[in-house]
Every structure is written in C-alpha cells, then in structure tokens.
C-alpha cells in the first residue's frame, strides 16, 4: 500500500479494545418489536472519522454484538451525509504516535464491522466518499438514498493512496477492473451509477425508506440458523480478515511513513486550507 520503513514508537497492537461511547457523536437505538439495533453516526458537521468517532463506533458495534440483536443498521443522524471519510486533521502535522493510534482505531473499527456476526446493513442517507464508503462496503447490504450526493473512493484526488483495506473491499464488491479504474480516477458515483455498478444493492427515496429496506434485508434471515449463517459469513470474508490480523503492525508502519512524507503533508495542508476558505 505505502512505501515501507521502520517506524519507532509504534503503539502496541491490540485486536479489539473497548472504548466509552460518546452519545454526542453516536446514537444507538434498539427496537424491541423488530429486534434490530440502529447505530447512527452524529459527529457534526460531516461525520469526519476521527479517533473519537471511530472508537465510539467500535464500542457501539461490540455492544450490539454482545446483546445479540437480529441485526444492525449503520446510518447517519446528519441530514444529506453518511460520512465524509477520514478526518484529515488526524493526518496533518501529527506525531508518529498520534498517527499510529489513529490508524489502529480505524483498523479496530474495520475489523469489528467487517466481522460482525449478526446481519448488518447500511442505510446511506447522503454523501459517502472515501472512508465513509469503506464503512458502507464493510456491511453486508447497502441502500443508498437518491439525490445529488455521490459515493466512492476518491483518495487519489487528495493525493492520498487508497488503503489496502478500502481497495480490497472495492474489488470484492464491484470487481477488479471497475475498482482499478475507479480508484485511479478517484471516481465518485451518483446513486443510479452506484446501483448500476453494484456498489449498492438498492436505492431509496428517503432515509426512512432506506432504513425500512435494511430492516427487510435483516428480516430475511429470521428462519436461517444464526450459527451457520455467521460461520459462512466469516468464511467468505476470511482472506481479508486474516491479512489484517497478520499484518497490522506493517500496515501501521506503512501508513505512518506515507502520512509523514513531505509531499503528502503539503497536499493535506493545501486541501485543509482550501476548505477553510469556503
């Protein structure tokens, strides 16, 4: 993914660590009648994935798994946006330890969401680029609300390499050739195109309909034994999960090396300053 060098002071690896959930940035509801837990990201203004939000999301997912709901719906409490992706302030002008801790938090969230044993679907109620797209791709089923927003992995437009955990999901979902071209171009797809290439499974007219369609997907498994289903899911996802668990330190080292390079820092500074001028 990135150029490799040995980075000192790497934070010790953990597989899954529990964090205290901040109710201001994550809203969790459970409906007794459906047995479904809904986890809504609520970090203003765009659900930027900083360490705090990632840690809170990991905790919420682990808590949901522990309570054994019929399924989980991941969505956003913000209007017209699912998640704008990684908070670039977590990458700019940071120490090695700060970068390491942030990337570990992202790894934790990805591993937790991607390996969640219960059915999990994403109700994507708005813009979903980069890291937001990665979260959606980590679920089993994606319903995108129609509108002027887009979805995809656009890291190259920001001068950033598409991380392996993002890229592999893209390939798995839309196929190698489509993923290759889309990643290189930093393509963002409007809803109808996202459906056409298989990036999402259904479209919805609004968030309520998207949530209802996610519920319907989860309810399809009510007569399927949970153990066989969960074991099959983990077998289908085994290759990606194994790679991450076996290569976490190297993945962090590569990320830190890449993030601290002068070229990347200059690109991040330019982009962050351009956002401030808007």
Task: Write a brief caption for the model.
The chain has helices at 51-67, 96-114, 130-138, 164-174, 176-185, 191-196, 207-219, 226-236, 238-246, 248-259, 262-277, and strands spanning 26-31, 36-41, 71-76, 80-81, 120-124, 126-129, 141-145, 151-152, 202-204. With 278 residues, the protein is of the alpha/beta class.
Structural features:
single chain, 278 residues, alpha/beta, six-stranded mixed sheet, three-stranded parallel sheet, 11 helices, 9 strands, 48% helix, globular
Structural class: alpha/beta
Low-confidence parts: 1-22
H/E element sequence: EEHEEHEEHEEHHHEHHHHH
How many alpha or pi helices? 11
- Terminal residue distance: 32 Å
* Backbone shape: globular
* Strand line-up of the largest beta sheet: 1-2-3-5-7-9
| Alpha-carbon Rg, integer | 18 Å
Strand content: 5-15%
Describe what you observe in this structure.
Helix 2 packs across helix 10 and helix 3 crosses helix 4 (164-174). Residues 1-22 have low confidence and may be disordered. This protein has helices at 51-67, 96-114, 130-138, 164-174, 176-185, 191-196, 207-219, 226-236, 238-246, 248-259, 262-277, and strands at 26-31, 36-41, 71-76, 80-81, 120-124, 126-129, 141-145, 151-152, 202-204. The protein is α/β, with parallel strands linked by helices. Helix content is 48%, strand content 14%. The strands form 2 sheets. A 6-stranded mixed β-sheet has the order 1-2-3-5-7-9, with helices on both faces. The chain is globular and about 55 Å long.
